[in-house]
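Bench notes, bay 3.
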Amino acid sequence: MSLPKTANGMDKLKLCYLLLFYLGSSSLTEVSGAQTCEIDSVLCTSDLSEPDDPPIFHDLTTKEIKSVQTYLYHQRDLRLLRPGLAKINTSFIQGMELYLPNKKDVIHYLQSKVPTPKPPRAAVVTIFRGDCDPAVVEEYIVFPLPWPTQHRLHRKVPYYLRPFNDVEFATISDFLTKQVDGVLRQFLEESFGGRLINCGNRCLNFQFASPVGPSVSNEPGARKSWYWLHQLVEYSALHPVDFAVLMKIVGCVYTIEKVYFNNMYFNSLQEVALHYRNPSFPRLRIPYPVDSKQLFSKMERRGILFPEKPVSPPRQVEPEGKRYSVKYQEVKYMNWKFNFRLSPGLGPRLHNIRYHDRLIVYELALQDIVVFYSGAEPPHQYANFFDSSYMIGMNLQGMVPGVDCPTGATFIDSHILTESSLKPAKLINAFCVFEQNTGDFLRRHISKTSPDGPFYEGVPSIVLVLRAITTIANYDYTIDFIFHHNGVLQTKVVPTGYILPSLYTKQNENKYGFRLNNKLIGNLHHHLFNFKVDIDINGQHNRYETLDIVLDKTSHPVSKKPYDVWYQNKIKHNLRKTEMEALFKYDFDKPMHHIFYNNNLKSPEGNNMAYRLVNRGMSKSLLPECSGNEGTGAWMRHQIAVTKRKETELTSSSVYSAFGTKNPVVNFRNFYADNENIVDEDLVAWVTMGTYHIPHTEDLPVTHTPGLDLSFFLSPFNYFPEDPAMGSRDSVRIEAVDKNNLKRGIKIDKQTFPEKMTCKAPIGNYFEYILKRPNVIFDIQ
C-alpha cells in the first residue's frame, strides 16, 4: 500500500510511525505504565511507495499497467472487450507482467562504471483470442514503458491449453449447475441431502476440477475436466459425495461426456436418472452435515483448551528499530542486497542477489508447484494439478500479522491485472519481510580449561526472511527466502491446508490412503516444487563440478596382520562437461557435493572460490517417463539439473501446463536433450523438492506444518578466506581476565544490549484495522 511522499523537514520518526500504522504492525502507546519500544529513525528506512522511474527489476507499476491497457484497447485489430463484457469466445486481456530485458543488457547496465542508459522496460501481455478461428492465446511484448508505442507477437498457444480464469469458471459453474439440477434434482436431494439451486442452507457445489488433457485422453486438442460434487459446508473439500461429471469444452460448446457415481460410470445425466428410477439401482445415502462448531471439517477452536488461562504467546521485538530497509522492491540487510517481484502466474522471484556487493544469484524463482493424487475414483485418479495454471502469484494475499508473519514485519502489497477488473488489483500483504532470531546459534564453542581456554564465543542465528504464501484452492504454500549472516542463502517451502479426501469404500480401503473417519479416505498425493537458480559466481562463466566421495583403500601400517588394508573416504573431482552429465538423481551409494565456480579465479590457497548447492528436500517421482501428465513436468525427474542459460529457456514450466500434451508449451526435456557444453558457460541449476503425503487423522481438519518443510541452500565453499560472519556485532565472547588464574574474573565482549530494554513490545492494531476493511484479507466482490 502506498504512502504519501515525505514533506521537507518531516521527522523521520513520524514516517516510521506512519509506516507501522499503515502496515498494522504496532501502536506507539503506553501499556501498563511502560512505553512501547522506540524506533530508531536512522534504521527505519522502508519506502513502500511506487517509483516514478522504476528500477529494472521492479514489477509493473499501476501507471504502467494502465498505460499498457490504454495502448492495447486502441489496437482495433485485437478487438478487445472490457471486463464485464468478455466471454470465453471473445477477445480480452487475461493478464500482464514485467518482461525483463536480455540478461547481457541487464548485467552491462548493473556493472557499468559510467552512466549507462537503463534498458527500456516492457510488459508481456496475455490475450485470450476466443474471437479467432481457430481460437488462440496470444502473448504480446508491449514497449517502451511507461508510454508504449509498439507491440510485437511473442508467441501463440493453442486455446485448449489456456490457464483457468474467472470468465470460464463462472460460465462452467452456471452450465453444470443448470444441467445437473435440471435432470437429477430429486436424485441429488435424496442421495446427498442438498440441492444445486434454491438450496437454502443445504447446498451442493462443483468446487474442484481434475484436468484431463490430450496426454491423458489421447484425444488431440481436447480440453476436459472431471468436476467433483461436494456438500457446501466448511470446509467443502472434506465433504465429497462420490459424484462427478466429465465435461468436454470445445470453444463455447460444453458437453457432459461421462458421469461417475458410486463406483459406476454413465454416459449421460439422463442415463443416471433412468437407472435411478429402477428400484434395484444401488442407492447411496450421504446425510447432509449439521453445521456446528464441533463439525470435524471446521477450523474453529474446540477440544481441551490450553494454556489453562489465556496468556499471550511470546513474540520478538526490534528494540532499536529495523536493521533492514525496503525501497522500490529492493531489500538491503547487513551484507545482503536483492530485488524481488511477483509473476502472476509463476509466483515470487528474486533478482540480483548480492553478498558484500558481489553477485551470487542473478535470478532465484519458483517455477511451478505440482500435486499428483492417487485414488480409485476418477476425480482423484486424474487429479494431477499444475498450480501455475491456477496462477500462483495471483493467489498471494492477506497474510495476518502475528500468525503468518511476525507482528512487526514489513508487509508489502503487489499490483496485478486480472481479466475480471479494468483497474489493477491490489494484493494486500502479498509479501512480508522480517528479521528473526531462530533460537539457534550460527556458531558457538566453549573451552572450559587451558591450554585453549577458558573461553566461550557464540553468535545467535539471526536471519532475514522474505515470505510469500500462496493459497491454491485447498492448499496453502509458504515460500521463504532466508538470508543468513554468513553468506548462506536458503529457500524453504512448507505446505499446509486442507487435504482432498475421497469417500470411503471397500474398493479404496488401505490401497490409496487411511480411513480418517466414518466416511473419508485420505488420498495419497505427491507435492513437487521446482525452482530456477541462475548462479553467477564471480561472473557468468561458471563450471559445475561434483566432489564425489568415494572409498579409499590404503595401507594399514600399524596392523600386525600381513598385507592388511585400511578403508577410508576420499574426494574425487568430477567436472560435469555437458548437460546430460549434469542431470542428478539422488543415489544413496554415491554421496557428493555440488559446487559452482569460475575457473579463472582462485583463492590464495589455490582453491576454486565456489558456492555449494545443497538440496535437503529431495523426493523421487516414481511415474514412468512420458506417462500421463509426467511429460509436462519433465523437471520432476531430477533433483538437480544444470543447463546452459538461454533467453529461450527462461522457465521450466508455464501457465499452460494443466492440460498436459505430448508436446507441452515448455518442454523441459528440450533444455538438456541437445546436450550442450556447460564448461565455462552461464549456468542455471533447476532444483526440485517434494514430499509424499499420506494423510492421517491428525490432518483433520487441516494439515500441520512440522516435518513438512523442504529447503535447499546455496553456501559459500572456499569463497571467503574465513567465516564472513566473524564481523558480526551480534557475537558474544566470554573469557578469563587471566586464563591462568580464573579467580581474577572474566570479561565479556558484546556490542548489543537488549537486556537494557525496559519497554514493552508494540501491540498490533491489525485486527481492528480489518474489522473496517475485510477486503484486506478476503476477496469481497
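Next record in the batch:
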Amino acid sequence: MAARNTHRLDATVKILFAIVPLSLGLLTTDPVNLLLAEDSSTSASGATTGNRSPLLSAAAVSKETADDAELRRDFGDPPLRWKSRPLWFWNGKLEAEKTKAMVAACKAAGYYGMGILPCDGMGVDFMSPEFLKQYKVAMDEAGRLGMKMCLYDEFWFPSGSAGGLLAKKHPEALSKRLDMLATDVSGPKEFTQAVPEGTLMGAVAMAMATNQRFDITDSIRDGTLRWNVPDGQWKVMIFTCVRDGGDGLVDYLEPEAVNAFIKLTYQAYHDAMPDHFGTTIDSAFYDEPAFYHVKGGRAWTGRFNEYFRARFKTNPVTLYPALWFDIGPDTAAARNALFGMRAELFATGFVKTINDWCAAHQMRLTGHADQEEVANPVIGTVGDLMKCFEYQSMPGIDQIGHYGRASCAYKVVSSAANNFDRPQVVTECYGAMDLPLPNLYKEAMDQFAKGINTMVPHAVWYDSATIIFKPDLSPNAPKYGPELPDYNRYIGRLQRMLQGGRHVADIGVLYPIATLQAGSWFGPGNPYEGCVDIPEADYMRVGEVLSLEVRRDFTFVHPEVLEERCTVDGATISLNNKVNHEHWRVFIIPGSRCISVATLRRIKQFYDNGGTVIATTCLPDRAAEFGADAEVRQLVADIFGSEVPLQNDAPRVTASTTWAGYEPAKTMDGNARTRWNAADGDKGAQWLEADFGKTQTVAGVLVNEAFDRVRGYRIQTWDGTAWVDQARGDKLGKSKKVDFPAVATTKIRLLMESVASDSASIAEWTILGADGRNLFDRAPSACHRNAKGGKAWFLPSPGPAAFRAVLAEALPDGDVVIDLDETLPGGNFSYIHKEKDAKSLYFFANSSNVGVDTWVALRGKLVPEIWNPHDGKVGPAEFEHAIGKEGSITRVHVKLAPVRSLFLVAPNSGETHQ
C-alpha cells in the first residue's frame, strides 16, 4: 500500500530475519474469506527474502522461562478464562432446562461466561423469588462448567432504577435537580419573593453593572425572601434542589441513595445465592448512568453545599449564578469548582459506592457511561469521562450503533485506566449493529489497538426469534454462530497478551476538563447531545489524528493525575504508578481557553528542563482557579513566546442543531471521514456558521457533503445587522465549490433549507479568501526554544501534516514510527505497545479493506518474533538493526492483508523505555 519513507538511516549493522507469511497464516484465506495470499517480501536493503531459515537464530532466541512457555501455550490454544463474556438478554420465557442448555452451548462456542441482562418477556417479575430461582439455575450450571458470570445490575438500562423498585420502595433516593428562580429588579426598593419548594441551596443578589454578588440567604424567613434592594439594576436568584426522579433513577451523587439501589439489586442477588459471589460471580456491570435523565442535565443533590464546604472550606452559594450566567472574571473558576465537585460526587457517590460493595464481596466492577463520544461530558453525561473511573476496578466503554461510532472516546477511557493503574478496560461492543462477519474483528482490532483489552459482545439472546437489537451472537445463530469458536480464540489471544502490563508511549495529552467545565452552563441545548458546544475543545480530534493518521500513540492525562501522580524528571514527565508507569517526552495541550494554573506550572517546569510542549487550536488565557488569570497568560507567554498568543484567532464554528458526537468543528478538521450531523431525523432548515471574530474578506466556499441529502442552500454573510445572501443553489454533493464577489464580513453561514432524507450532514467546508486560500488554515508558530533544549510549538490548525513535521523534530526516533502516511478505506492501521512479563509486545492491526505493506521502526535493539493472533502460530520476523538519530532502532517489515493483525514480541532490551 505505502511507499517507504526515504529518510537516511545511519545504519552500520543489519541483521536480517526472514518472515514466512504462509506458514504464519498472515496472508492466507481466513474464515471470513478476506485475506490475500502472498509469500515474498523485500528487505530494507533490497534483498529478497523467501522461505529460508533466519540467520543467527540460535543467538537471537534466549532460553525460555516457565512464564514464557506458559504464554506461548496460552497463545497457541487460549484457555477458556481468556475468552470473551457476552451480555445475555433474557428476552424469553425462562425455563430451567433451556437455561442450562444455553449456558453449556455458550461454553462450547468459546464464551467464558455471560452477564445476564433481564428484560421484557421473561414471564416472571424482576427480582421476584421466581426470577431469582431461575437466575440461580444459570449460576449453578455456570459454576458446574467452570465458567464465570458477571452481575448486570439492572432490569434493561440505564442502571439506577432497580426495574422500578427504587421509586416504589425508596422514593427519597430518586434523582434531584437544581432549579433557579431569577428576577431582575431595580433598586432602591423592598423585594419580596416566596421561596419555591425543595431544599434551599441559597439566594444570591448580583449587581448587573459589576457582577458583584452577595449571599442573601439569611434574608429568607418563613419561606419568603425579603431584601432591601440597593440602588441600581440587580438580578435576584433563589436556588433550590428538588426531586426530579427522571426515568425512576437514583440520585447518582448521594451514597445513601445509591446504597438503597444496592440493597434492591446487588444485595438481593447475594442474599439469594451467597455461595456464588466471589466464585462463579466474579464481577458486576453497571450500564449508562447519565445526568441527561434529569431535566436540563441539572442533576444535583441536597447535601451539595455540605460536600463542597468539606472539600474547599468555603461556601459555594455566591458561585451558583455561574451555572446559568457569565459572572465576569470569576466565571471559569466558579464553573470549574461547581462542575468539578459534581463530577467528584458522581465518581464517589455512585461508582465508588458500588465498587466498594463489590470489593467486599470479592468482585470487580465494570460499566460505562452513555454518549462517551460527546466531546463535552460536563452537563449531560457523567461530568468527567476520566474522573468517573478513578475508583472503578475496570473502566468501560460502549461501542454500539455502527462501526467506529465511539472511536474518538476509546483513548479517553483506556487512558483513564492508565492514569489510575487499572489493568483491564472493558468494551460492550456490537449492539444495534447489523454487521458483516469481518466487523467482529474490525471492532476488536481498532479498540484493542487503542488500549481496550476486555471484550463483552452484545449479545446472546434467550429467544432468538424476538431479538431487539442485532446482532444475535448466540451459539445457534445461523450467521454468527459458526464463527464464534474462531472469534473467541482470537479474542482470547488478544486478551492474554494485552491485559495488564504497562502502556508505552512518548506522548502525553492533557485531558482538557478545565476548559470543558469553564465553557459549560445550564443552557437551552439538549443534554443528551452535550448541551453546550465548546468550540476550542479539539482533544478528541487531536487524539484521532495522532492515533489513526500520524500513528503515534499517546495517553490522555487528567490534570489531577498530572499534579498528584506525575513528576518532571529532566526532559520527561513520569507517571509514577506501581504497574503502569509511563514516561512522556512530548506533552500536548489541546485547544483550551481555560487551564489549571497548577497544571500549567508543571508543564512549564517540564519545558524549562528541556521537554517539548505542543499546543493546538487555541491557547489558554484564564485559570481554573480564582485570581490566577494573569499567571496563566504569563506562563503561556513564557512557554510559547510573547507573540504567539496573538495568533489565537481560530474561527468559531457553530450549528443550528447537532447529533451527539458529530460536532460542527469536525467540518474544519481537514478529515473527510469525520462530519457534522444535524440532530437525528431533523429534516427542517439547518445551518453551519463560522464566526471569524474579526473582519475577513471572503469570496467563496467549498462544501463536501457526507451524503447527498441537501435540497436547497444559501451562502450568507453577516453585514452587522442581518444575513445577506451571496449565493444559492439546489444541491451540494461531495465537492461543491461556490464562488461569489468578494465581501468583507465577520461571519459566514451555510443555510440548508431542506433535506431529502434523514438530516443534514457535512464532512468538510472550506471558506475561501479573495486570494483563494483556506481561511481556516493557520500556519504553525515558530519553535520557541530555551537554553536547556526545551521546545514549544503552537499549532493553530492541528492536522496530520503539522503534527508529522513537529514530531519528526521532537521525536525523530519515537517508540514506534511507521512508514505509512495514508488513511485507509474501510478501517484503520493502528498499534499499541505494552511491556509485560519481561517482554515488549507490539500489536499492529489493519482493520481496513486493503492490504498494508510497510516498515516500522521500534526504539532499541530488539530481536522480535511474529505472533499471529488469528491462528496462534509463532514465527520469525524480517527486521534490521540500525542507528537512528537518537540511538539504536529496529526496523521491522509488517505485511498484513485486510482485516488482519499481528503481534511483534521481543525480550525487553532495556532500550525501549522512553
